[in-house]
Each structure stands twice: as C-alpha cells, then as structure tokens.
Amino acid sequence: MPSYAKNKKALFDYELLETLEAGLVLSGHEVKSVRSKHIRLAGSFISIHDNAAFLTNAHIAMYRYANVKNYDPTQPRKLLLTKKQICYLTGKTHEKGLTIVPLSVYTKGRLLKMEIGIVRGKKKYDKRRIIKEREQKREIGRAMKEIN
C-alpha cells in the first residue's frame, strides 16, 4: 500500500478527530501523474455541494507525456463516498470549528484512495508547545550522541 502524498501541514495545523477513506475520480493522465508522485495536498480541503464531496485546491501536475489542452491542475475533483458518509460529513461541517481535510493519497489494490480527516483547528499556543517539545527532543538526542 504505497503512499503517494501526505499532508503534514494539516497534522500540524489541526487536531485530528476522525478519519475516513474515500475514492478519487481522476482522468487517466491524472492517475499516472499521481502514481509518479506529482501531487500536493498542502492547502487543500474537502467541500460538499449538491450531496457530493469534492477535493478542492489539491495540485495534480499534468502528466509529462499527456496531450491535454486547457488543463487546470487545481480543479475540483469528486470523491467517492456513500450517501450516509456524505450526510455525516455535512453535519460535521455545520458544527462550529470543524473542517474536513485530505490527509494522504495511497493505493489499495489497484485503486487510488484518499484518507480524509475531520479536524479542529489548533490554537497558536498549542503549535508553540509542539515546536518546543520537538526542539527539546532534538537537543536530548544530540546530547546522547555526544556522550556515546
């Protein structure tokens, strides 16, 4: 199950509450581009319109050998979810402070799947605490390396 892209920024900016798996509707050259790891999830989000979920603002570069005119790399792409899941996500988006973001793109068998997360935004002081803990771990690791 190789992973093609991870949204590390989302895990830093948001507190993860729940995850779901969704399929992606892509054209052939987009699939080849994703499989060659030319996809960026930073800054992207999931929006729901007319009882359908869409991946918005994800950048999938045009495949090198594709012969496509007027290709928009950040166009909205439909996600394959059941009606029950879409209703659930719609309810969650109406709750204050919750949003839906893509976390990773990977394969399951021969299909491309996306892990999406229901998240709540972190406060600035939470982010500072995480950075401080990370720096302390690095310093401890350096000190232990110097001792050995």
The end-to-end span amounts to: 37 Å
Large-scale geometry: globular
Derived from helix and strand composition plus strand pairing, the structural class reads: alpha+beta
Total of helices: 4
CATH architecture: Beta Barrel
Physical arrangement of strands within the biggest beta sheet? 1-8-9-2-7-5-4
Helical proportion, percent range = 25-40%
The number of distinct structural domains comes to 1
Number of strands: 9
Largest sheet features: 7 strands, antiparallel
Features:
4 helices; 37% strand; two-stranded antiparallel sheet; alpha+beta; 148 residues; 7-stranded antiparallel sheet; Small Protein B, Chain: A; single chain
Please explain how this structure is put together.
There is one protein chain. With 148 residues, the chain is an alpha+beta fold. It has helices spanning 8-13, 28-35, 83-94, 124-147; strands at residues 3-6, 14-24, 39-40, 45-49, 52-56, 59-60, 77-80, 98-108, 111-121. The chain has a single domain (3-122), classed as Small Protein B, Chain: A (Beta Barrel). It has four helices and nine strands, in the order βαβαβββββαββα.
Short description:
By secondary structure, the chain is α+β, with helices and mostly antiparallel strands.
How does the SSE layout of this entry go?
Elements: E1 3-6, H1 8-13, E2 14-24, H2 28-35, E3 39-40, E4 45-49, E5 52-56, E6 59-60, E7 77-80, H3 83-94, E8 98-108, E9 111-121, H4 124-147
Antiparallel strand pairs: 1-8, 2-7, 2-9, 3-6, 4-5, 5-7, 8-9
